[in-house]
């Protein structure tokens, strides 16, 4: 066998292994929620199941109501999603903030929104079943993460069964 072919093959294999290792590390880092501390924010439902949705019907959305039942103001520092097919919008004191998307996929604006003690805000989660093309059919499970300045994290989840 030609020595040159063996060397090129080895470089390609090592390149694929390196890309897989790098992708695993990027995915793990992107799914972290700051310190892992529990947020003082509360929500009546952390999971919403859209049931069966069709790609041909397009985008679906759900509104989550988050509340600050603590005795102090809480500043939401960041809002981000687990996938590019999902966007989140935060109802701010001066109107809607966002869209907030997946970390590492372009500019992700800071939320920097204060929820007063006893106050609440809505978080609109938008899922685009067409974002992954024909390969995107089947069960989906996506997340929206909100982190506050003290390191607390709140996780919201949506599910659906996507059909063509």
Tell me, what is the CATH class of the largest domain?
Answer: Mainly Beta
Question: How much beta, percentage-wise?
Answer: over 45%
Unreliable stretches: 26-34
Determine the number of helices (DSSP H or I, runs of at least 4 residues): 1
The helix-strand sequence is: HEEEEEEEEEEE
Oligomer: single chain
Report the helical percentage. Answer: 10-25%
Largest beta-sheet details: 6 strands, mixed
List the keywords:
164 residues; alpha+beta; Immunoglobulin-like; five-stranded antiparallel beta sheet; 1 helix; 11 strands
Description:
The radius of gyration is 20 Å and the shape is extended. Helix content is about 15%, strand content about 45%. The strands form two sheets. Strands 1, 3, 5, 8, 10 and 11 form a six-stranded mixed β-sheet that branches. The protein contains one helix and eleven strands; from the N terminus they run αβββββββββββ. The protein has about 160 residues and is of the alpha+beta class.
Can I get a quick summary?
With 164 residues, the protein is an alpha+beta fold.
How are the SSEs ordered, and which strands pair?
Blueprint: H1 3-30, E1 37-38, E2 41-42, E3 47-54, E4 60-68, E5 74-81, E6 86-92, E7 95-100, E8 113-115, E9 120-127, E10 138-148, E11 152-163
Parallel strand pairs: 1-11, 3-11
Antiparallel strand pairs: 2-4, 4-9, 5-8, 5-10, 6-7, 6-9, 10-11
